[in-house]
Design goal:
- The complex is a heterodimer of chains A (114) and B (114).
- With 114 residues, chain A is an all-beta fold.
- Chain A contains no helices and 11 strands.
- Chain A starts with a strand and ends with a strand.
- The relative contact order of chain A is 0.34.
- Chain B starts with a strand and ends with a strand.
- The chains are: A mainly beta (114), B mainly beta (114).
- Chains A and B meet through strand 4, strand 5, strand 9 and strand 10 of A and strand 4, strand 5, strand 9 and strand 10 of B.
């Protein structure tokens, strides 16, 4: 059974710091991995989608890497800003036949202090 | 381009009642998935529809049901509401049958059962 873990559960950093969020999954048989951001009480905003054949994706100050063999992904945020404060979720799509659903991690709650 | 639209945004219902939530996917998207988010259980998969057919169902009781219409709009229904059904219900859509394109989420419907 696929399990997704995110460490740390919460993180508080001063503005301007570079930071790394971690996501681990137990089964490497995945179609892809997606990072999301969720603001309090709101829906999910997609940040980056990494296909199983890819190693990383970049968008602006965000860079996500994927090491399928070790079951790990990292989200790197450069020069953090107070507007980056949110909960960050990673999700994988297992390749179990006919199953196109996300297994979500528990999230990392990030607070960037001005 | 309009995103995924969920209505209503907020609902308050009494135990024992039933409720119907609506989701309009991004134009051209044919796959719609539903998720439940609670503080204790996180994000959990409810079901997924493609071309009016339910392809996948999560581990939820039969009180949770859904359907998809020919225009790809989807509804989910919860009958005999319980206090534990209070949650944020999120809908997501994808262009294709598979997960290659990732999913785009709506803002959710916040259901409170009293």
């Amino acid at each position: 059974k696929q399990e997704v873990t995110q460490i740390p559960a919460a993180l508080s950093v001063p503005e301007g710091e570079n930071l790394v969020l971690n996501c681990s999954f137990t089964d490497s048989a995945i179609y892809n991995l997606q990072w999301f951001r969720q603001d309090p009480g709101k829906g999910l905003t997609s940040l980056l989608l990494i296909q199983s054949s890819q190693r990383e994706q970049t968008s602006g100050r965000l860079n996500a890497s994927l090491d399928k063999s070790s079951g790990r992904s990292t989200l790197y945020i450069a020069a953090s800003q107070p507007g980056d404060s949110a909960t960050y979720l990673c999700a994988v799509t297992p390749t179990t036949s006919g199953t196109y659903k996300y297994i979500f991690g528990t999230g990392t709650r990030l607070k960037v202090l001005a | 381009k309009a995103g995924v639209t969920q209505t209503p945004r907020y609902l308050i219902k009494t135990r024992g009642q039933q409720v119907t939530l609506s989701c309009s996917p991004i134009s051209g998207h044919r796959s719609v998935s539903w998720y439940q988010q609670t503080p204790g259980q996180g994000l959990q998969f409810l079901f997924e529809y493609f071309s009016e057919t339910q392809r996948n169902k999560g581990n939820f009781p039969g009180r949770f049901s859904g359907r998809q219409f020919s225009n790809s709009r989807s509804e989910m229904n919860v009958s005999t509401l319980e206090l534990g059904d209070s949650a944020l219900y999120l809908c997501a859509s994808s262009p294709e049958a598979g997960a290659e394109s990732g999913y785009t989420f709506g803002s959710g419907t916040r259901l409170t059962v009293v």
